[in-house]
Amino acid sequence: MRSSTFILSQDTDQHTANSLRKFHTHFKECKAGEQSKQSRRPRSSQQTSEPVHNQDLKSQIRRRSSKPINENDLICAIRVMRKVKKTQMLENILDKYETKIVRYFFEKEMSSPSHHVMRLLHKALDMCWEKIMDDCNQFHFSNDILLLLSEKENAKACLFDVMLVYPDFIPVSWAGPHI
């Protein structure tokens, strides 16, 4: 299977590919920061002894999240984004002020996203993922799509990849048709 980086090099310009790389780098940094915050929290005596199988599962999930997005995940994400666009899930997910900031990002500064913009995109994709999971039975997704959606962070990254590769999936309120 081809990685999304290979697909991006064929289908998009260098500007979009650079933005995607920056998003993934920033995404991993945010994730690492959250993990370090969790490790600094004091644990109760009940939480200190974690079963071995849970540690193995966590290491498998970490390995999975560090892999590049494969072609099948990208195809599944496109199918999900079709449903999201059809139901206009992302159109009003942020308030007016936040939408204005995200709109400015997509119109002007895609090459250098700020931490605030990245946080807003994470928030929007989190809320979108939650709505998708709430209405999962309504959409009649295939098993491949459900497998993708079962890994929240991977699903969010795939959905954002699809928006960058296919700008028509970017909500109109986020400057979709202007890109």
Automatic annotation (TrEMBL):
What is the recorded name of this protein? DUF7774 domain-containing protein
Q: Which residues form the DUF7774 domain?
A: 71-163
Q: Region (Disordered): which ranges?
A: 30-64
Q: Name one Pfam family in it.
A: DUF7774
UniProt xrefs under InterPro entries:
DUF7774 (IPR056676)
- Output the PANTHER family linked to this UniProt entry: DEK_C DOMAIN-CONTAINING PROTEIN-RELATED (PTHR38630:SF1), PROTEIN CBG12780 (PTHR38630)
Tree of life domain: Eukaryota
